[in-house]
Design brief:
Blueprint (H helix, E strand, L loop, with lengths): L29 H7 L12 H24 L6 H28 L3 H22 L2 H8 L8 H16 L6 H27 L3 E3 L11 H6 L10 E3 L2 H10 L3 H12 L5 H19 L5 H6 L7 H33 L11 H13 L3 H5 L4 H16 L1 E6 L10 E7 L7 E9 L11 E6 L9 E5 L15 H19 L20 H7 L5 H5 L13 H12 L2 H18 L9 H11 L17 H4 L6 H13 L12 H10 L7 H9 L6 H12 L1
Parallel strand pairs: 5-7
Antiparallel strand pairs: 1-2, 3-4, 4-5, 6-7
């Protein structure tokens, strides 16, 4: 997933430091270096709050200067004298926003996380002010771009559309109300996300017998002595996922489930209602009947009705598969518990795991031994190198926001005779207090051709961050790693455009998950998995038979999984496509849970309070579903050859990844497939589990 509160573009200052990947075109001003540190990296130069605030304010001032220069132009409007300074202003704003987002989501210091949120609010307010600046809009609208290249025309057309969607054509009073609503919404969104990051549920284990069934390395890390006298588990992923999958104790699983689904409640219930009301009012001010209508008009789907059509089509493929899968799991569970009538939601992962062991001879505990974090990371890096024809070189000795972060420069490997740096990635892979609890990727610095190289970061919460922990990952964790790296590579390869505003993540939002979901499918290839799946004690490769069982077991459950995805997508849509007085977030969440699968509802489930996608994706959680359809269609182009070494990989890089947002997503699909996307690959993928 792409970072959902990221404001992600970089600075117009063409200068560098030890931490920069910039091609330095002018010397670093002494005034900047002495006051604020590195102009590209908010964390460089120390943790003094005054310095960090000054760093952000300097970028905001630079953005203001670009806007003033744009407005002051006399004579005819051109791409260079008007669109260029507009793009420069965006660079400054978005660099400040990216730095603030990093602090909010990853800084180990609460004072800096608080400051990051404050800076984000200031950046968003300045961006809103720019989006409602009539003089700027009129100047942009006056540009004759008929002789410009296609990417520039595409950019200008999109900028003008976004201005109209911001209410630029409304009267002064309406624009002022829109400004106030936008500022209010920013505060609400940031507070919702911050509550999630700061929330950590904890449960006490009554005695060691409650840990029966859990992996030995997990139990070793959770003794009474290791936990200070009382075995304590948290709702962070390294504790939550194993408990829900392996713990024999139904009581422990139930307590963990409720602690996990109760995070950030009730505070975020209040905030969610406020967000929905603010968005509805915002949409009405702009002349739309609902926020969902406003939020889809510039996406591939164009309208809420088309989202419903998409989800209905996917439901036709998923529902019969899900019904058959659940019947098999329930029948299996009833052999062990004859009085069992339904499986509660906190038993879903546990009974799925046991069923897969019996039906497929697959034990995910056995697979963990082959997925040691350090080896998996090495294998992921090597896979990216081969697929995208790049070289990833570790960079050490940099000042970073936390000492657990690792850094790699991305170099082009298409020409062995020369080294060309493409960008830099930062991997922040393990959980810690105050850090964002989820997995996402976002930009730190968005590149621009001949100006600044792109930089991106991965926020992970994988096992392996504790010296006592060998870092044995679940297969699903490995899939997540591949997924997030798809975003990283998109951010690097797709951000070498002439305009910051046409970088990778500026493609239509319902396409942005395609590169990440497409990479998940590469784990079907045993040769790729062999590059990192080595037993952590013996070094032996994963046996072929175990690999086949793993894939067969993984295919089982797709129907159940996608029924849930469809239900969540419908939930996010319905929250934003009906009158506010008809919304009951709790009751609708319960309905979504029941629609999303056959698992028995558990009272106390307040999962909407940590459904962070409602902030960044708003009504458009369907993005994952449409992107999956396209990703599977894309992956079929790789079949019949070596996934990494054939010509399709480079064709994919050139046609899909490198254009970034310089062309429409529809063109990207047609250029790669020679046609529009089809549901057929999704339907076949959905049936694989049943056929196995």
């Amino acid at each position: 997933m792409v970072g959902i509160t990221e404001l992600t573009v970089e600075t117009s200052l063409k200068m560098g430091s030890e931490n920069s990947t910039v091609s330095q075109t002018e010397p670093l001003p002494d005034a900047w270096a002495s006051k604020w540190g590195d102009p590209l990296h908010i964390w460089v130069g120390g943790t003094d709050v005054t310095r960090v605030q000054g760093w952000a304010d300097a970028h905001l001032a630079a953005a203001d200067a670009e806007v003033q220069a744009l407005v002051a132009v006399s004579g005819s409007r051109t791409v260079e004298n008007t669109l260029r300074p507009f793009d420069e202003a965006q660079r400054e704003l978005d660099l400040a926003g990216s730095g603030a987002s990093l602090l909010t989501n990853a800084s180990p210091q609460k004072a800096l996380r608080d400051l990051g949120q404050q800076i984000s609010q200031k950046v968003a307010a300045r961006a809103t002010e720019l989006s409602l600046n009539v003089q700027v809009y009129q100047a942009l609208a006056a540009i004759d771009a008929s002789n410009s290249d296609a990417a520039t025309r595409h950019y200008l057309e999109n900028v003008l559309l976004q201005y109209r969607l911001s209410g630029i054509d409304k009267d002064d009073a309406t624009r002022e109300r829109v400004r106030a609503l936008s500022d209010k919404l920013t505060m609400e969104l940031l507070s919702f996300q911050r509550n999630i990051a700061d929330s950590q549920g904890k449960i006490l284990v009554k005695d060691e017998t409650e840990l029966e069934g859990l992996p030995a390395d997990f139990i070793a890390r959770h003794t009474a002595a290791a936990c200070g006298g009382q075995i304590t588990l948290t709702t962070d992923e390294p504790d939550y996922r194993p408990v829900m999958t392996y713990a024999k104790s139904e009581s422990l699983r139930r307590r963990m489930y409720l602690a996990y689904s109760g995070r950030a409640y009730p505070a975020n219930e209040v905030l969610l209602k406020q967000v929905l009301a603010t968005r509805a009012e915002f949409a009405r001010e702009l002349g739309f009947t609902s926020w969902a209508e406003l939020a889809t008009v510039d996406k591939l789907v164009k309208a809420p009705a088309n989202v419903r059509e998409l989800l209905a089509e996917l439901g036709k493929a998923a529902k019969p598969v899900a019904e058959r899968e659940y019947a098999q799991i329930l029948a299996f569970a009833q052999k062990h518990m004859p009085d069992l009538k339904t499986i509660p939601a906190y038993g879903a992962g546990y009974w799925m795991e046991l069923y897969q062991r019996e039906a497929y001879g697959f034990d995910s505990l056995a697979v963990r031994a082959y997925f040691q974090f350090a080896e998996v990371q090495r294998g992921v890096l090597e896979t990216m190198e081969r697929l995208f024809h790049v070289k990833l070189q570790e960079v050490k000795g940099l000042e970073l926001w936390h000492d657990a972060v690792t850094v790699f420069d991305v170099e082009d490997a298409t020409d062995a005779s020369k080294t060309k740096k493409l960008g830099r990635i930062y991997l922040d892979m393990h959980p810690r207090e105050g850090k964002n609890k989820w997995f996402n990727a976002g930009t730190i610095v968005t590149g621009i051709r001949n100006g600044q190289l792109p930089e991106a970061r991965l926020n992970g919460n994988f096992v392996g961050g504790d010296a006592r922990d060998p870092g044995l990952m679940l297969y699903s964790d490995v899939v997540t790693f591949f997924h997030e790296f798809g975003h990283l590579m998109h951010a690097i390869l797709g951000s070498h455009q002439d305009w910051v505003g046409t970088s990778a993540f500026n493609v239509e939002w319902d396409f942005v998950e395609v590169p990440s979901q497409m990479l998940e499918e590469f784990l079907r290839d045993k040769k790729i998995v062999d590059s990192f799946a080595k037993h952590y004690e013996t070094g032996e490769l994963m046996p072929d038979d175990l690999f086949r069982k793993m894939l067969r077991a993984d295919a089982f459950g797709r129907g159940l999984g996608y029924e849930r995805q469809i239900a969540l997508a419908n939930y996010s849509l319905e929250l934003h496509d009906r009158p506010v007085d008809e919304i009951d977030v709790d009751a609708m969440w319960k309905k979504a849970a029941k629609d999303g699968g056959p698992w028995e509802w558990v009272d106390g489930n307040k999962g909407f309070a940590t459904f962070g996608h409602l902030m960044g994706y708003s009504s458009n959680y369907y993005t994952y579903s449409l992107s999956k359809v396209i990703a599977l269609d894309f992956f079929n182009e790789f079949r019949g050859e070596s996934l990494l070494d054939g010509p399709v990989g480079m064709r994919y890089r050139r046609i899909v990844m490198e254009p970034g947002g310089s062309v429409s997503a529809k063109e990207l699909v047609n250029n790669f497939l020679g046609r529009s996307q089809s549901y057929e690959a999704f339907r076949e993928w959905m049936k694989e589990g049943i056929e196995n």
